[in-house]
Amino acid sequence: MDSNDVKISRKKPIFPVSPALQKYLKTYQRESKLPITYNDLLDFTEAYPIMDKYGKDSLWEAPIYTDSQMSDLHNGLKIVYANLKASGNLRIVQHKYIDKIEYCTFGNTNPFRIRIVNRLNDVYDYFYVKKADASRIYGLELEHILSPNQVNYLVDRETLIEEHIAGIPGDVFAKTYLHNPEYNPTRIAKEFVKFNERCLVMLLGDMRAYNFVMQITPDFDDIQFRIRAIDFDQQFYEGNIKVYLPQFFKENYPYVKLGMEQLTDKTFLQYQQEEKSSLLHRVRSERHRLTDLRDVSSTEILTTDENIITLKNGMAEYFEDSQYRECRNMTDIIELNIKNIIRQVKL
Q1: What is the pLDDT of residue 289?
Q2: For strand 112-118 and strand 212-218, is the pairing parallel, antiparallel, or unpaired?
Q3: Is the pTM higher than 0.85?
């Protein structure tokens, strides 16, 4: 397969949050009544571009609000942060203030990035306010259930609040840190294999290097690595199977090359099997929640019929399994992925 064949829809439609999904979110404490909505933040008339440290356009803008707007927005955003981080306990924002509100014109959900600072020690944190997109919410839920990562977010009707995921952007890591002599290259290659496996099982697409981060954790005898997705816009929408395999994006070639250099076919298969075993453990521990999510998503329209047909045929060919051709929707494909893992791990 040639990475040049991978094509992403330039503008995936925003899918509204259905009453059934809203009920699911309420059941699992993802719903919250918020004082500030996405549309409130959109109420600005001017903005100026934000440049990065090299003087290039960062694709983020600083919106300009009136004084009265600023006061209401800042107070409301502190409450939003308290809801996200501490179930609404306002004591955590007692000494915090909103330092920046930034708006991104690039991407599907046109997010606002909020920087909140502790005035006692200048420690800061970020969170995001976005348009609520049902397919993105399903991506966040699947990441929380099936990956080793916990995901923190809240939904209030058309507004989605997401916690900032810390880490070194994958493209920056590849350019600056990938060949650090202190880092074990095999551990990095191993993590990319596992990440690649998870993305295909969960149908999380468009994991180019700038859509994931590398988290680095010093251990007592070595350094551990974990790749975390930070963009869930392309959750089970596209029909091309390569979209769900990070190995086929040219932006990820440094990681692919590292794997080719460091891993044998035997170790590659071993790491794939390790991730499948971990996925199976998560499926078993969260089986009720996963079933509830499946029951909701299977009733929704979250892509086109053409994409479903293309993907199920692509999966059938990739796995040499004709059962994929019987799938009716993207949810069925994910469910069959999981069933196949259960069968393989038991063998």
Answers
A1: 97
A2: unpaired
A3: yes
